[in-house]
Design a protein that fits this description.
- This protein is mostly helical.
- Helices cover 79% and strands 0% of the residues.
- 8% of the residues are buried.
Length: 112
Amino acid sequence: MAEELNRPQDELLSETEELEKRSAAARLFDVRRVIGGLFVVYGVIVTLLGLFNSSKDMEKAQGVRINLWMGLSMLVLGLLFLAWMWWRPTVVPSTEELREELREERDNNREG
């Protein structure tokens, strides 16, 4: 066990770990998922509020069920974002492309 801790850091191993982190982050973090999810959640909440509007709320909006319409609009927008994410998934760069990019970054850091 002591031998494992004292062995020199393998450059290929550290490069592979770095590539795995970037690949996982690219797949997990898609802004469309976050935006779409938030719009769906808020759309459901506002739609439910719109379904149970009081007469005072209707008077304030000049007879328009504004919460209902805005909630439905938010719900549709959120679903469109989620559908867009499904139709056009995030393309994760190949391992070779990531390795080349990582090498270029390291070379630029050494020069600068």
